[in-house]
């Protein structure tokens, strides 16, 4: 593809996202677009994706400039602004790409031409920009993130706006970390042990993993180091009865199966049966044989009541705004329909209340989200504890040595007893988790 044709493809994808009436994530729209165009080669795919994600990563500042130039943020103007402000093209280079030749975009219209002359040579940042714009923080999350991050707000926002490294979890049902490093090296991929997760690897660069022996044989799974730590905090051991209540496609379920060495039982439950189906394929490849998939009608499905007090460990990886995953999904910040935080937090409490019924006396419930907002974490847990005197928060520092005796606890990760991971501090996605223990049954005479 020519550079101009790549720009056209990127604008087409932005148009499809804009025209859709759902909040389809950019990666799934782009994936569908590329599947229908198999002729687009890998270098072109990478370049197209970089432009699309570039418009999202820099959206607040691009919009600020468009607003100042009285231009609407349409896909074509967004791309023009991106190429000038982020890719640092000059107006002449831009016009050469927008010349209508073959697959190139049509030449700039008058207002676009005025815009191009206005933006060319400007730097993306401007001293008049409000802090939230400089930090690429959407309005709906600003107050909550400022409250959660305090003076680290801008630093964490910058880290949340960078591309994440690729992390792998070694599937100990198939092999060791050393074997995984060696298998990846055979495919020319350099991996080093993660800082905190004893079963993690961090890759250098962004290598294509699809065809590697390590991935195809189930020896490794792509999983952020923070997600790995969260699964380890559950403390599932061989022989236990465990529920992964919001299992989705089973990223953490598979990690739990490996901790349990296939002994005992894990129920992977979710209201989304299609996501659970994806787990069916993954568990075969991962040689995980102790997982039972349980589609739920709602969080109050009768299955929950029937299994009251039956489980040693219950993980609730609750649906959330995903503010901690913006490194991977920068488009999630700018969702069109807006995010109904009150509705989401009510659902999180419903899920937590219902899933807690599954925990046996003396068992543990781990509540986690990939959001940094207190409204989705500490506030939910505080509300839960207020209504459930039989549970207590086990402070992270108290639980860590028993759960991960050989791994260093990430610096400042214990925030008031909760695990709090963030990209600037720990190089992981943002996660918050609470370990809640149900009192053991008291002996009655
Ligand atoms: C953060 S995702 C889980 C990701 C998954 N644990 C993993 O590691 O890949 C949240 C999940 O909660 C599920 N969910 C949403 N509402 C639910 C409900 N009312 N009861 C149970 N699960 C729900 C969603 O379908 C989604 O799969």
UniProtKB/TrEMBL annotation:
Transferase listed as a keyword: yes
One of the record's GO molecular function terms: RNA methyltransferase activity
Positions annotated to bind S-adenosyl-L-methionine: 270, 317
Residue ranges occupied by any SAM-dependent MTase RsmB/NOP-type domain in the UniProt entry: 156-439
Residues at the active site: 370 (nucleophile)
Domain of life: Bacteria
PROSITE patterns, sorted: NOL1_NOP2_SUN, SAM_MT_RSMB_NOP
One GO-annotated biological process of the protein: RNA methylation
InterPro entries, per database record: MeTrfase_RsmB-F_NOP2_cat, MeTrfase_RsmB-F_NOP2_dom, RCMT, RsmB-like_ferredoxin, RsmB/NOL1/NOP2-like_CS, SAM-dependent_MTases_sf
Pfam family name, one: RsmF-B_ferredox
Keyword terms: Methyltransferase, RNA-binding, S-adenosyl-L-methionine, Transferase
Entry similarity comment: Belongs to the class I-like SAM-binding methyltransferase superfamily. RsmB/NOP family.
Protein's recorded name: rRNA cytosine-C5-methylase
